[in-house]
Amino acid sequence: MFLKNCWYVAAQASELGRELTQRWITGEPVVLFRSEAGKPVALEDRCPHRSASLSKGTLIGDAVQCGYHGMTFDCAGSCVRIPGQEQIPAAMKARSYPVVQKWHWVWIWMGDPAKADEALIPDLRYNDTPGWTVTGGVLKVQANYQLLTDNLLDLTHETFVHTKTIGNAAVAETPMESNVEGNEVHVQRVMRNTPPPPLFKRVRNLTGNIDRWQIIRFQPPSSVSIDARGFPTGTEDAEQGLRWFSINSITPIDERSSNYYWTITRCFALDDQEITDLVHKQILATFLEDKEVLEAQQRLIETDDRKKIEVSVKADFGSIHARRVVQRLIAQENQGSAA
Amino acid sequence: MFLKNCWYVAAQASELGRELTQRWITGEPVVLFRSEAGKPVALEDRCPHRSASLSKGTLIGDAVQCGYHGMTFDCAGSCVRIPGQEQIPAAMKARSYPVVQKWHWVWIWMGDPAKADEALIPDLRYNDTPGWTVTGGVLKVQANYQLLTDNLLDLTHETFVHTKTIGNAAVAETPMESNVEGNEVHVQRVMRNTPPPPLFKRVRNLTGNIDRWQIIRFQPPSSVSIDARGFPTGTEDAEQGLRWFSINSITPIDERSSNYYWTITRCFALDDQEITDLVHKQILATFLEDKEVLEAQQRLIETDDRKKIEVSVKADFGSIHARRVVQRLIAQENQGSAA
Amino acid sequence: MFLKNCWYVAAQASELGRELTQRWITGEPVVLFRSEAGKPVALEDRCPHRSASLSKGTLIGDAVQCGYHGMTFDCAGSCVRIPGQEQIPAAMKARSYPVVQKWHWVWIWMGDPAKADEALIPDLRYNDTPGWTVTGGVLKVQANYQLLTDNLLDLTHETFVHTKTIGNAAVAETPMESNVEGNEVHVQRVMRNTPPPPLFKRVRNLTGNIDRWQIIRFQPPSSVSIDARGFPTGTEDAEQGLRWFSINSITPIDERSSNYYWTITRCFALDDQEITDLVHKQILATFLEDKEVLEAQQRLIETDDRKKIEVSVKADFGSIHARRVVQRLIAQENQGSAA
After folding, report:
1. How far is C90 from chain A, CA to nearest CA, in Å?
2. C214 and C173 share a domain?
3. Which residues in chain C touch residue B66, judged by CB atoms under 8 angstroms apart?
């Protein structure tokens, strides 16, 4: 059961061009491409005629021709050609989805198009703000999307999973402060006078201790941005330290797998490609560590016959409340559609 | 749900010899071999004792010895030996299936043996007629067998899937004529003064336009023969043109996969091995294109959660009526067995 | 449905050390290791916090630290650390299982710990008796554990499956004597003045005929030991012949797969490593033949849609009664837990 009336990331803006690209999103097949004018387009990737994948067809101008019997659909999903037949049945339509390019990514609305309000796109502005340099990617993870948001809302795991890059003892030892504001969940950890983790040291040549902040913001259904700061102890000086946002948005492929869209966007050494490459490589390695943990977790939950109720701790405040928000929104959505 | 009281192709005649061959047919395991006298034999491929595959055993004379505990069964499936025991329980019997070698293939009757009438074998005589040269094979396709008969009953797809061999624009543009005669469905397309498709050109050195016929005959449950003709425009002269039958019979392995038996049988250049090899290679490549489309279609139907009603067009007349015939025959069969 | 109040082999004693080892047993994930004192320990391999596999964590002294958020559990499964939190909820406990090292193997009790009586460990003493040399291993087999015990309780199959090592015609031809004693099932075959099978010849340089005994003892839920003897005809002289125990214990991984623990323990040529290597290699090859048969059997039972009632023969006495014992014990266990 997924929230449908909301925006999910369908692709990185850089991934879409004039070739047909297939993505499964919340259990539905979608074909993505850019129109000749460069506008992103999303249609259901299933020919209404005989269920062939439109993404295996051909893009002709701004229309998609099915690779099986040649039915052709425009950007609105209307059928514009049936080979050997003049009349086009009204039902011969491929569903089209609202799409918007914003914050480095292309967003898709899987629910009622009438409700697709761009203002509801999660605020991930640091992905696309002058004075900030962004690097990122997408990772397929064989785990339910909420295992990924759980992961991002409790960074305690950095101490145990990410010792080579962004984790050290301080993270796990420092309690968090958390609160819920409307549909957002905020979690914050402030570590004073603490050794910098390995990647911070390498990126900013930090030698002494730092004050370190992790300011986490969850926006439903599955975006988590982390304002990460590490400044020489007592200075509060970004110039001497590190500040970046780790911006994450998780798109459910189906109940058991997800596309994990991520960026690191920083406000220092803006044009330093070496720093960009280093950060990209190290953060990717970090997320591959998560992937391994999360996929093992998914497998265990699926395979273990026994129903087990998980035991929570204080650090789970964020993930528990984020799940509650999504659960409430899904309930509202279903109530709405039932009315 | 499969039709059982009917003939399916179990194997190409050339495939069967003195080794034990396993085939799954309509969800049941079957072991096939030839007797010492050369007669094809089919038993259920499941030892009644402890469910070992008889096909992993040994053929001794005309009897199959199970490879696990040595129970031995004759061509009628009667147990003729239980090691270490004189008395043979009446229930120790492997089911035997009626089999007939006809039209290049070995046919099996999966239903009530008392109803197995050879006259019900689909008429595919051009597979085995003097003055015709046949080449063919069998292809495993991960798709329901009716997706394959659908495919063969609407050749519009040649224009989009088979542009390298037998498809060009004329096919899709020319309307079809169709009709139902008893349990048979007939679909016909006549293309006048049209460019020959690439393979016709190569095989018959055609330079100018042709008149082209596709005369399709469906016989239940899953045989489709296509009388294909391409003669220089206005000549109706087979000598200068191409005529062959594309003969196809699809055997369900289970609900999700099929064995696709196919031949091309031609009435020209009978002894020209080069032509035989060319046709075989090109038609196999053509059917591998179908396989890719059909398997993608099957995957989509299985994976997409949403129930979708497909929208039909005029060109679907043949496949729709062929499905209706099979549905009616299955209903009659079930009614019969309930009575 | 598995018997839980009983001992299963969890590992060979030699397999366990200071690294964390995962095994699935009767559908439950278990993590195994040795304490600093060398005692085998078994915990459920599922962190009660967020279902990570504890076996992917770290062994610190005698405690297991979860690799995800650092929850740490002692050998009794009690949580001794929650990072960033003083108070430990009572429910934060990993289940611990009784384990005992005995007869070359480490045994685990998957049911009610209060009922875990060491006296109930199957008597496999020849795995660990002075004057006997043991070799063995563990094999994963994709088949239900009872297909394996069936296999061991009817050695008729040696004649058909193991012709290269321990099977010849005499085995299948000689009737068995069987009886049930309490929860044990005994099957015995005595072959007088019979040619030795190939492996017997090689191991003991036997040239003439032998008297051969197979004395099989089933102890529930899934241990089968075979007292195998082959002495020159009429001599009853172990010195000139072969005597070993084939000791087998099958641990269900889940309903469809099993770990097959096996040994051969012999009372001759005790220190002859060449003989040990030969026996190990040949018996492993023999059991790989069984694995192939058993996995095909499992696949057939799973894939064939039709429900088929198997037909039994006299040689099935042992396996039928062994299954009845296990069925009765499971029924008693469920009745007990319902009461």
Report:
1. 9
2. yes
3. 160
pLDDT value at residue B312 = 96
- Contact residues of C toward A, CB < 8 A: 24, 27-29, 45-46, 48-53, 56-57, 65-70, 82-85, 89, 91-92
Contact B140, B259 (CB under 8 A): yes
Mean pLDDT value of segment C75-90? 96
Structure tokens at B193: 């003064």
The C-alpha atoms of residue C123 and residue C301 are separated, in whole angstroms, by: 32
> Does residue A47 fall inside a structural domain?
yes
Burial-class residue B108 by CB neighbours within 10 Å (0-12, 13-18, 19+): buried
* Euclidean distance between CA atoms C64 and C72, whole angstroms: 5
Looking at the structure, tell me whether residues C100 and C154 fall in a common domain.
no
Kindly list the strands in the beta sheet with A7-12, ordered across the sheet, starting from the edge strand earlier in the chain.
A7-12, A105-109, A99-102
Distance of CA B284 to the CA centre of its chain: 14
Last residue of a domain, one of B99, B120, B141: B120
pLDDT digits (tens, 9 = 90+) for B209-224: 999 999 999 999 999 9
Residue in the block written with tokens 């031995």: B72
Residues of chain B with pLDDT under 50: none
Helix (H) or strand (E) holding A180: strand A177-181
* Residue A208 belongs to some domain of the structure: yes
The closest of C208, C247, C211, C207 to C227, measured between CA atoms, is C247
Q: How many domains does chain C have?
A: 2
Could you tell me if C213 and C326 lie in one domain?
A: yes
Count Cα neighbours of A92 within 13 Å in the Cβ-side half-sphere: 20
B130 lies in the same domain as B115: no
CATH number of domain containing B270:
3.90.380.10
Shortest CA gap A219–chain C (Å): 22
Q: Which of A111, A97, A105, A9 is nearest to A329 (CA)?
A: A111
* CA separation for the pair A165, A168 (Å, rounded): 9
Range of the domain at C294: 125-331
Task: Collect the ranges in chain A with pLDDT lower than 50.
Answer: none
Question: Do the domain assignments include residue C339?
Answer: no
- pLDDT number for residue C305: 73
Residues C98 and C49 in one domain: yes
Tens digits of residue pLDDT in C92-133: 999 999 999 999 999 999 999 999 999 999 999 999 999 999
Task: Determine the distance in angstroms separating the CA of B253 from the nearest CA of chain C, rounded to an integer.
Answer: 11
Residue with tokens 């624009």: B169
Question: Hey, how many other C-beta atoms are within 10 angstroms of the C-beta on A182?
Answer: 8
pLDDT value for C338:
55
User: Which of A68, A73, A85 to mutate against chain B (most B CBs within 10 Å)?
Assistant: A68
Residues B103, B141 share a domain: no
Residue C47 is assigned to a structural domain of this protein: yes
Enter the ipTM.
Answer: 0.93
CA distance B166 to A69: 15
Mark out chain B residues that contact chain C at CB-CB < 8 A.
24, 27-29, 45-46, 48-53, 56-57, 65-71, 82-85, 89, 91-92
Instruction: Say what the pLDDT of residue B338 is.
Output: 55
Best C300, C301, C308 residue to mutate vs chain B (most B CBs within 10 Å)? C300
Q: Does C178 lie in the same domain as C87? A: no
Nearest to C84, CA basis, from A290, A215, A178: A178
CATH of the domain at B20: 2.102.10.10
Nearest CA to B103 out of B132, B75, B76 is that of: B132
Q: Do C300 and B29 touch (CB under 8 A)?
A: yes
Instruction: For chain B, give the percent of residues with pLDDT over 70.
Output: 99
Confidence (pTM): 0.93
**Three-class DSSP category at C164:** coil
In angstroms, the first-to-last Cα distance of chain B is 18
Given C98, C119, C140, which residue is the final one in a domain? C119
Looking at the fold, whether A52 and A143 belong to one and the same domain comes out as no
